[in-house]
């Protein structure tokens, strides 16, 4: 009887720990902090992508909070972009939007260097077909591996090499021509 009670108390404590320190946006919960590789990351900011209605909620995780996009892009170490879909999205549409966002925020020289890696990501996302509402899309930067794409907890495609690629990916939301300015402000922790 004592073991059962202790087990129940331990389970309740674990549940309280796991739900404490989370940011909720559009019904999705993003942890305040997480461990990625050997690094502790904190949520820098959150926001909602709206285009013809709300499309997805997202959070940006960094080793330390920053409201300066240039400092974020230059920062070394692991990073995470976490997206939770509010509406279904076709892989082709999502891949096209990300590719366009990278191209809109890259010089001609950067586009040439990134071209094959952007295609690699796009091909992986297109192959997924429709991604259902409620799905989780995560882009992790792990210096020892590269950019890792995870959908609903499952790694997809091959790692994409180069910190320049992850910086280009971040520019989709944080660049000079972001997909949505108020989303950029939210990810920078300036709005919610």
TrEMBL record:
The species this protein was found in: Azospira restricta
Residue span(s) of domain Chalcone isomerase: 22-189
Claim: Metal-binding is one of the keywords in the record: no
Pfam families reported for this sequence: Chalcone_3 (PF16036)
Residues spanning the signal sequence: 1-22
Name listed for the protein in its UniProt record: Chalcone isomerase family protein
Domain of life: Bacteria
Keyword Signal belongs to the record: yes
Entry GO MF terms: intramolecular lyase activity
Alphabetical UniProt keywords: Isomerase, Signal
């Amino acid at each position: 009887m004592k073991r059962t009670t202790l087990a129940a108390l331990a389970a309740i404590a674990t549940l309280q720990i796991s739900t404490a320190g989370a940011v909720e946006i559009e019904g999705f919960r993003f942890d305040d902090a997480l461990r990625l590789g050997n690094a502790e990351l904190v949520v820098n900011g959150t926001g909602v992508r709206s285009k013809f209605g709300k499309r997805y909620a997202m959070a940006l995780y960094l080793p330390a909070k920053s409201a300066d996009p240039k400092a974020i892009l230059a920062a070394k170490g692991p990073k995470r972009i976490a997206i939770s879909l509010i509406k279904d999205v076709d892989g082709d549409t999502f891949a096209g939007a990300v590719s366009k966002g990278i191209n809109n925020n890259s010089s001609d020289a950067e586009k040439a260097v990134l071209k094959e890696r952007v295609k690699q990501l796009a091909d992986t996302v297109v192959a997924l077909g429709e991604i259902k509402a409620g799905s989780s899309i995560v882009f992790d930067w792990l210096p020892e591996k590269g950019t890792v794409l995870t959908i609903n907890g499952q790694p997809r495609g091959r790692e994409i090499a180069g910190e320049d690629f992850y910086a280009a990916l971040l520019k989709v939301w944080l660049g000079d021509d972001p997909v949505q300015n108020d989303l950029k402000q939210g990810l920078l922790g300036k709005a919610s």
